[in-house]
Structure to design on (222 residues):
């Protein structure tokens, strides 16, 4: 069993829809990261969270430390949001990664 | 002004060859990492260095050897390449601040194809 589980694995949405991607983890963490991997392969760090909620443009990330759960929300989704979204947690100097959620936003 | 840069971006090579992937960060971070992303997009840590010292060494074949000449560089050398080594390799760095949280920065990845 992976230390980090994401759901769903694949997600297709119509442009404009509100999207939620979930992440659950089983280890003690000091931080949780949401990463975006574009079709070309490059990885961009979207958020780093240790508590509460962060917002950047149309992206919102929340974390519940007690429940060991985080969500990434995308409001008013757009085709350029199509990518793989990866949840990663930091435990000490170790990072554990989820297998990613492949998002396709259709115009 | 790239924070974490990897070279080359693409590498195609024959089985049995020895190759190196270079990574440099200009962020002044103390800790650098190498990750392997397999065909299922799963990222696995391979090595972690802090101030040129190896601190994480996951179970990888000893054909893989990291080299850190200084804390801004962490190169990955692979001997006797095998077909199963084909993957995308990511370098990353983070600032070590004791118990404080820190953001990780990733390179763009190196797509290695062994033929």
């Amino acid at each position: 069993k992976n230390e980090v589980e994401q759901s769903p694995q694949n997600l297709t949405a119509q442009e404009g829809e509100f999207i939620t991607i979930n992440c659950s983890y089983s280890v003690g963490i000091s931080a949780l990261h949401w990463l975006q991997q574009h079709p070309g392969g490059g990885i961009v760090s979207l958020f780093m969270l240790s508590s509460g909620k962060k917002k950047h443009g149309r992206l919102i990330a929340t974390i519940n430390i007690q429940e060991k759960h985080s969500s990434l929300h995308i409001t008013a989704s757009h085709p350029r949001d199509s990518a793989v979204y990866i949840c990663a947690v930091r435990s000490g100097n170790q990072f554990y990664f989820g297998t990613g959620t492949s998002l396709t936003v259709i115009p | 002004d790239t924070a974490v840069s990897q070279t080359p971006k693409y590498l195609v090579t024959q089985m049995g060859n020895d190759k190196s992937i270079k990574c440099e960060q200009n962020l002044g971070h103390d800790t650098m990492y190498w990750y392997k992303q397999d065909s299922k997009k799963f990222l696995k840590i391979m090595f972690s260095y802090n101030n040129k010292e190896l601190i994480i060494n996951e179970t990888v074949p000893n054909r893989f050897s990291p080299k850190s000449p200084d804390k801004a560089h962490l190169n990955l050398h692979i001997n006797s390449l095998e077909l199963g080594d084909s993957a995308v390799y990511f370098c990353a760095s983070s600032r070590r601040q004791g118990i404080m949280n820190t953001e990780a920065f990733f390179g763009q990845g190196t797509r290695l194809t062994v033929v």
